């Protein structure tokens, strides 16, 4: 092997000596590319060029999400799937008091929190409607269109998994005095595992309980398909999410816990912030939080952290700007915004963009390339390029 490497090295070196002009040209080209890449990815932009804009008349309360390169916008009256140029792909009318959305690969679940309807959609339109008999607290969709539903009625909580046609695949119920009160669920992409976060007061103090269910081979011989249960004292974990590698991240009020994906889920990593957790954000591959810390000078500052789906810390950064909303885009950028200001931070630590808008900025979505974004403003959707 070493002889082959030496032969290859000799051939390359011989080519460079025999073609000095070509080699110099290649070197200059590589240097230009390196300089361009550095300028493009390590500078902060404060303005942008509008490539295309579309006026909108969306009602107050309309929310926006990116889906397969286009935009889903939804409100109490229905949902619309449009291109970034404003062309309608599909629309679905419904009547929901509190519409929510969950997205997994090719499927979208639009459901009414507190209601009984779940609309399962893909890029071509409606694929199924699931109607429950009890009020929905949370619904999740898998990559085959099946949905997991958490429902609550009085002191009893109900869990169901239904296929895209509404057929019941699995069900169960929990009672507050026995298993606590479920507050969130997470569903794996393949629809075989369900995690439930509950609050229990049975010990006399607040306790968070994470219960793992498996509806595949790992759980078929287990009682109630339960393959693992973990409890955390003096803790509430109001949000849990499965990552793309099957790991589960549980966001607590003063701790973040990562569980690995195995036949019996194991606690993989515990993250203890120095102070409180003010905000969380995530996508399929990364998660993070913002919270106060005391620096070396004794000053209280805001810090932003980002972790990979395996628990590796990618970013540890102090932030100075104010924000009311934080979220992570599909391209791993973190957006901090107020009514009329926005910042985009890369997980490399670079502040990519900061700007004060004339209109209210509702949502920022990724577009076709690194410097391209969709700016959803009040009355306008703009396809832009940073400059």
Structure described in brief:
This protein is mainly beta. It has three helices and 32 strands. The termini are far apart.
Structure, explained:
This protein has helices at 2-18, 20-42, 176-179; strands spanning 48-55, 63-67, 70-75, 78-82, 88-93, 99-104, 107-112, 117-122, 125-131, 136-141, 147-153, 156-162, 168-175, 181-187, 193-200, 207-214, 226-233, 239-242, 248-251, 256-259, 267-271, 279-282, 286-294, 300-308, 313-319, 325-328, 334-337, 341-345, 351-356, 361-366, 372-377, 380-386. The chain has 387 residues and is mostly beta strands. A four-stranded antiparallel sheet has the order 1-32-31-30, with no helix packed on it. Strands 2-3-4-5 form a four-stranded antiparallel sheet, with no helix packed on it. Strands 6-7-8-9 form a four-stranded antiparallel sheet, with no helix packed on it. The protein is globular.
């Amino acid at each position: 092997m070493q002889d082959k490497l030496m032969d290859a090295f000799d051939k390359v070196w011989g080519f460079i000596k025999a073609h000095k002009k070509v080699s110099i040209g290649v070197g200059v080209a590589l240097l230009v590319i390196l300089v361009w890449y550095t300028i493009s990815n390590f500078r902060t932009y404060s303005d942008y060029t509008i490539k295309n804009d579309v006026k909108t008349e969306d009602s107050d309360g309309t929310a926006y999400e990116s889906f397969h390169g286009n935009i889903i916008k939804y409100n109490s009256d229905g949902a619309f799937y449009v291109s970034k140029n404003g062309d309608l792909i599909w629309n679905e009318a419904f009547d929901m008091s509190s519409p929510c959305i969950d997205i997994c690969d090719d499927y979208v679940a639009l459901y009414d929190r507190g209601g009984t309807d779940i609309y399962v959609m893909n890029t071509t339109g409606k694929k199924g409607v699931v109607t429950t008999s009890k009020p929905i607290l949370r619904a999740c969709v898998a990559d085959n269109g099946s949905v997991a539903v958490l429902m609550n009625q009085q002191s009893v909580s109900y869990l169901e998994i239904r296929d895209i046609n509404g057929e019941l695949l699995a069900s169960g119920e929990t009672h507050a005095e026995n298993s606590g009160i479920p507050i969130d669920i997470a569903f794996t992409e393949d629809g075989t595992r369900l995690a439930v976060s509950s609050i229990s007061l049975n010990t006399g103090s607040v306790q968070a309980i994470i219960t793992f269910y498996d509806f595949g081979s790992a759980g078929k011989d287990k009682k109630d398909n339960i393959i693992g249960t973990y409890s955390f004292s003096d803790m509430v974990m109001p949000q849990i999410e499965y990552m793309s590698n099957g790991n589960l991240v549980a966001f607590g009020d003063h701790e973040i816990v990562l569980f690995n994906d195995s036949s019996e889920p194991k606690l993989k990593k515990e993250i203890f912030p120095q102070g409180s957790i003010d905000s969380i954000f995530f996508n399929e591959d990364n998660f993070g939080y913002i919270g106060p810390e005391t620096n070396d000078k004794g000053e209280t500052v805001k810090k932003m952290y980002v972790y990979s789906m395996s628990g590796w810390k990618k970013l540890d950064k102090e932030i100075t700007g104010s924000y009311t909303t934080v979220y992570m885009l599909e391209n791993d950028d973190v957006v901090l915004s107020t009514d009329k200001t926005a910042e985009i931070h890369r997980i490399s630590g670079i502040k990519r963009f900061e700007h004060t808008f004339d209109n209210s900025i509702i949502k920022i979505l990724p577009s076709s390339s690194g410097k391209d974004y969709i700016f959803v403003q009040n009355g306008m959707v703009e396809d832009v390029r940073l400059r």
